[in-house]
Every structure is written in structure tokens, then in C-alpha cells.
Amino acid sequence: MRVAAVLLVLALLVSGCTDDPEGTPGGPQPPQAEETWGEGAADPPPPAVSEAEVLERVRRGVEAARAGEPIPAATAPSVRDLKTDYSDGGPDCPAFYPGKGGWELCARGDAAGERTMVVIGDSHARQWGSPLDALAAREGYAAYHLVRLGCPAADLTPWLNKGDGPNLHCEQFHAWTQEQVRALRPDVVVLATSFNPNGYVVDGVQVLDETERLRLLREGMARLVDELDPSVGRFVVVGDPPAVQLSPVKCLLRARTLDRCAAPGSDLSLRATEAVRGAAADSGAAYVSTAEWFCLDGYCPTVLGELLSYRDQNHVSDTYARYLTEVLGAELALGS
Length: 336
Known about the structure:
Elements: H1 2-13, E1 40-41, H2 51-66, E2 74-75, H3 79-82, E3 108-109, E4 115-121, H4 123-126, H5 129-139, E5 141-147, H6 168-184, E6 188-192, E7 200-202, E8 205-207, H7 210-228, E9 234-238, H8 248-254, E10 262-264, H9 267-283, E11 286-288, E12 299-301, E13 303-304, E14 307-308, E15 310-312, E16 315-316, H10 318-323, H11 325-332
């Protein structure tokens, strides 16, 4: 009997799909552990030539998931490579700025270009690095990615994600970023940001209330745009797609059918995206909505044809971001 009990406990421990072992209330139920299916690697398609092509891919992906079709045997990227499928910044420039200072500018895109693009944000800005560099290179922009993980594109100090206290290095990086923007006087600044789960700092106090955090994010992003406006040609804010309520890698390694690894968008992520959209409206910045490139009617598959769109619960895979290059480019209008 003891052996049977141990086996039962082990079976329960390995059966989850979400990062929350209790599951997400109201979300999809985690699949039971099944034989691994889709671990092969497929060649990614060329970038979509139009938004209509992307929307059709999403529509078909939603239909396939709702029908419980099998997970493809090969995907781009492969499931095994998905977790590390992010923009690396290229051979000469960092994808993001680590450390405690001593930061130096590094031009990507067309490093000798006559026009300048600056990208500001955290990992949610990094996820668009590859298409932004491709577009900058083609349109003659020197691109400077002033990106630091955990450091939002807002005049706002976050609470440390791993630690106890304000993220003072982020505060210092913000000051350095603003100095660089004023010196570069870029033609365009692209901003993208996430919503800090550990809150923000006001007068040395950690703010955790959800509604207050959303207000602070909206106000802090609009304030950053207003402060930099005299030095910038125009601003474009790229919104986040909805976060999914499951771990794509865990699901795709355990499930056999697409419906097990599709989920509604997270309510909190949708509210955070609305705060960012509001900040763009408040400050007069252009806003790019990306939700429809991933989800349909609030339902978000993690597999769209052969493409894996999400790297994890709330980041875009680099392979899918590259697929969206021309669609994103049409929104940024860098050639104008």
C-alpha cells in the first residue's frame, strides 16, 4: 500500500501544466502527463507580408486548438529550444544592459545610418529586438537598445524582483537612458514594457495594490514621454500581447493535442496593456496593438501552424517576432 501511495503522489506531482501547481482559477485545467510529442525542429516561414496573413494564421491556430488537433511533430522553434528563443543583440552589442554602471552606447541596425532609433524598456522591449534591428538596417537607422531587464519604460522605480527594496540600479539606468536620449536626439523612440509583479516605489514605500500599480505605470510612462519629448522626433509604444495562463514549454512537452496548450489571456496582463495604451494616449504617442497577432476573441494558442508564438507565459518567441517583422514595420512607418 505504501508503494501505491508513493506512486499516486508522484503521478500528481508531474501532472501539472501551469506554473501554479493549483492551476489558474477559471483557466484551462493542466493536462495529465502524456508521451512527449512535438520536439522536432521545423524551418520557420519567411516574415508575413501583411497583417491579413498573420490574422489568418491566428484564426487557423484557434480553430485547430478548439478542434483538439494534434501538436505538430516539428515546430519553429523546437519545443526543446523554445525557452532560450530570444533576441541576443548580435555579435557586437548586448541584448540588454546588465551591471551597476559603466554602460556604453552600441549601435545596431544600420550603425552608420543617418537616422536614429532608440528602444527603451525591459524584457518586453528586448523581445522585439530582432525585427526592430532588421527594420532599422533596411531603413537606414542606427538603433540603440537602452534595455535593462526588470527596468520598465516608465519614469518609475520598481521593487526588486529578487530581493528586498527599491531597484536602485534601475533608477540609475533610467537617468543614464534619459541622458543618452537627450544627446542622441533620435528620430523615433520605441517603448515597450511589462507590469512589475512586485510593485513600484513611492517615497521609499513599496506599492502593491493592483489598481494603484496600474495607475503608477500609466502615469510614469506618460511622464517619461513628456520629459523626453523636446529631444525626440516621435514616440511609438508597442503594446504587449495577452499573457497566457500556462507554461508553453511544460504543456508542449506533456500534451498531445493543441487544446491542452491554449488558454485565455490573463486578466491582469490585459489591464496592464490598457494602462500602457492609456499612457500613449495621454502623452500623444502612437500605439501599436499586438493582441490580434496572437489571440482571437481572448483565446490564445501557443502553436500557430508550425510557429510557437510564446516563449513563456508572457514573452514572445524570437522566431515569431521575426515572422512579424513586416507587420510591425507597417505600424512603425520608419520609411516615412
